[in-house]
Amino acid sequence: MAGKESDVAKRRRVATFAPELTMSFPSLIESIAGREAAWIVFSYILGCFTAGYYWTRWRTGGDIRELGSGNVGARNVGRTLGPWAFAVTLLLDAGKGAMAVAGARWIEAGPEATVAAIVAVVAGHNWPVQLRFRGGKGIAVSLGALLACEPMAAVALLAVFLPVIALLRNFTLAGMTAFALAPLLLLIAGTPKVELAAVSILSALILLTHRRNIRVELVRLGRTQTATGAAPGAMHKGSHDEA
């Protein structure tokens, strides 16, 4: 009889444990770590929606990468289709950067996952898989993400950008200098490590995608100074700037 009771108790324990075991898998999928990973992947997909490319396709049927400077960013779209196209592209690109941050906060993602989502949305914009990895250069997306994540980063960018553009009269070099020095300024200001990492990674990505532009503008600036013997008087915006 004791053996039978033992078997019954054993079956009861199995029956009680089985639902708990079954429920553990959905709960694992729905855990914060699972949501974070899903949002990082979605952020890359969101970044792949390059507004300039699809706006130009819709309005003209053409490929913006074959027009003007070949960039899918707001400036090239504006040169090709006008100021309204510039505004729409800029807002949509910046908006998806901000959306990556907002979504990470909505799912209560950890700070590391939020940084990963920011990097993912910029990577999707720069290297969209559906366009064979020929996308933009990430300035507008990065600015949107930084404004949503760490507004002080925008202050740091302006603090560098304004004096440099006044000195060099070159939009590209001023912007790249601002992104290069912004992490240092935020470090001095005591910005938390995670936000500092986000700014540093985005700055590295932007400098990477603009490396050719930087070389071209430095050569142009050197020639101008050699020819005039002074700092250039007219501002040059650069032929491949994104925003």
Written account of the structure:
This protein has 243 residues and is mainly α. 76% of the residues lie in helices and 0% in strands. The chain folds into two domains: 1-30; 36-228, no CATH class. The protein contains eleven helices and no strands. α4 runs antiparallel to α5, α6 (111-126) runs parallel beside α10 (193-209) and α7 (139-149) crosses α8 (151-168). The longest helix is centred in the first third of the chain and has 28 residues, at 2-29. The relative contact order is 0.11.
Q: What's the structural blueprint in terms of helices and strands?
A:
Elements: H1 2-29, H2 32-47, H3 51-60, H4 74-81, H5 83-106, H6 111-126, H7 139-149, H8 151-168, H9 171-188, H10 193-209, H11 211-228
Helix pairs in contact: 2-5, 2-6, 3-5, 4-5, 5-6, 5-7, 6-10, 7-8, 7-10, 8-9, 9-10
